[in-house]
UniProtKB/TrEMBL annotation:
Listed SMART domains: PKS_AT
Domain of life: Eukaryota
Species per Swiss-Prot/TrEMBL record: Riccia fluitans
Protein name, per record: Malonyl-CoA:ACP transacylase (MAT) domain-containing protein
All residue ranges annotated as the Malonyl-CoA:ACP transacylase (MAT) domain in the record: 177-476
Chain intervals for the UniProt region annotation (Disordered): 1-21
Length: 477
């Protein structure tokens, strides 16, 4: 940008957009000495006006600053808590001459007075950030203030931080939760044909998969839909079709804009990453297809099984597994594979190990055990043959920094570094799913609203077991 001195920011709260949604208007000005007591003087040029929904302000600040710093300096800068205005001022001062609107995001600015739209496309903001370091920022002295003005500038520090910490301090308010294998049912997707965007996803899926996925979803047969190689792509596509169904509803886009965190159960993590813009719908579907095939092949190679233990806490289920393991060989040993919710934990392992768990469960005062209709011992060492295949596919897949936090099944944390995300996804098939921990963390951090996107109501049932008062709505097609 040309012109001397820093830009200064005027923050006006309590504004409402055309749909009545409150937002904070952030205006960046040059020549602040030309302001009047009643507001901004005519000679103080407004170089940008940024209206954002107050519900998603922190996310917007983060990604807009990352995007602008990428455009201006060739590498992104992370927004630190409490320094959002200072960071944004620096970003705008450096890059306002390069970015105008969403459609001109990659072109030079032709007008000195750009206005970014209210619905800024967060999904596009961090597509080129992979592998770059994030310099931190330090705040300089505030400039003398005028009434109604927040004035500050910042300077760059050479200190670097890791690129996987972007979401370390995330504060969730609205979450999209995506189901995993087992949520499928014949008849799902029956409403997709009535929603053009949802129908388009199934049409794209047919091209990628080479068969009519929607026909299997609607008509079955059940045995075919329940197979790992079919059910995983089916749930992935049906869940993202549910997103389009919500978007098509009155007020649906406003809900989508308010989502600031997402996660998915096992397979659902891929759906969450696709929703968050980490990879395209097609690339995600190719990964899910390969994942299902690789997991099925691993299950076929060594007989194994899974069962749910109902009515025990996780410590007692772990003790039950230890007792069962004392009676079987190392090749048949079991472990907790899915930490779902209090009183419901899935155990995986060799067939004899699972049989031993079922035989001993009543002596541990379990209410019941339920053998799961899956191909094998998911999320254990039994899936190790699938890892190398996934690693190879992930290495060839473009993965970007997600636009919002995506909570990992492996460690219950959000990751922003694409290379780390690839490692996590490869590791996921042999690691226990920390779903209970993930949901509890979201609630502890202030989650207020949740939506289950996809077939069935498994996620809603799990969330209610963790918190009876947590609101959740199911959207499906």
């Amino acid at each position: 940008m040309t012109g001397a001195g820093p830009l200064f920011l005027s923050e006006r709260r309590g504004q409402r957009n055309d749909n009545g949604i409150p937002y904070t208007q952030l205006s960046f000005f040059r020549n602040p000495e030309e302001t009047s007591e009643g507001g901004i003087g005519e000679d103080a040029r407004a170089v940008a006006v940024l209206p954002f929904s107050e519900l998603s302000a922190l996310r917007s600040w983060r990604y807009l600053s990352l995007y602008l710093s990428q455009e201006a300096f060739g590498n992104p800068m992370i927004v630190k808590p409490g320094k959002e205005m200072a960071t944004m001022t620096t970003m705008m001062a450096s890059a306002v001459g390069k970015v105008s609107t969403a459609t001109a995001a990659r072109t030079s600015l032709q007008t000195p007075n750009p206005v970014l739209p209210r619905a800024f496309p967060h999904v596009k903001l961090s597509q080129s950030l992979e592998g770059m370091k994030l310099p931190s920022l330090r705040q300089s002295k505030k400039a003398p203030g005028r009434r109604g003005m927040a004035r500050m500038s910042v300077s760059l520090s050479t200190e670097s931080s890791t690129s996987d910490t972007l979401f370390a301090d995330y504060k969730p308010s609205t979450a999209f939760l995506f189901p995993g294998q087992g949520a499928q049912a014949v008849g799902m997707g029956k409403d997709a044909a009535n929603i053009p965007a949802a129908a388009a996803l199934f049409a794209k899926a047919n091209e990628v998969l080479g068969y009519d996925l929607l026909d299997i979803c609607i008509n079955g047969p059940k045995e075919k839909l329940d197979s790992t190689v079919i059910s995983q792509p089916a749930i992935y596509v049906a869940s993202l079709a549910a997103v389009e169904a919500l978007r098509a509803q009155e007020g649906g886009q406003a809900i989508l804009d308010s989502v600031d965190v997402t996660c998915g159960l096992s397979l659902g993590e891929y759906t969450a990453l696709a929703f968050a813009g980490a990879f395209s719908f097609e690339d995600g579907l190719k990964l899910v297809k390969l994942r299902g095939e690789a997991m099925q092949a691993a299950a076929d190679a060594t007989p194994s099984a899974m069962c749910s233990i109902i009515g025990l806490d996780s410590e007692k289920v772990a003790a039950l597994c230890e007792a069962a393991n004392e009676e079987v060989s190392n090749d048949e040993k079991v472990q907790i594979a899915n930490f779902l919710c209090p009183g419901n934990y899935a155990v995986s392992g060799g067939v004899k190990g699972i049989e031993a768990v079922e035989a001993k469960a009543k002596s541990f005062k379990a209410r019941m055990t339920v053998r799961l209709a899956v191909a094998g011992a998911f999320h254990t060492r039994f899936m190790s043959p699938a890892v190398s295949k996934l690693e190879a596919a992930l290495a060839e897949t473009e993965i970007r920094t997600p636009k919002i936090p995506v909570i990992s099944n492996v460690d219950g944390q959000p990751h922003s570094d694409p290379a780390t995300i690839k490692q996590i996804l490869a590791k996921q098939v042999t690691s226990p799913v920390l779903w209970e921990n993930s949901l509890k963390t979201l609630l502890d951090r202030g989650l207020q609203n949740s939506y289950e996107l996809g077939p069935g109501k498994v996620i809603a049932g799990i969330l209610k077991r963790i918190s009876k008062t947590a609101p959740i709505e199911n959207i499906s097609v």
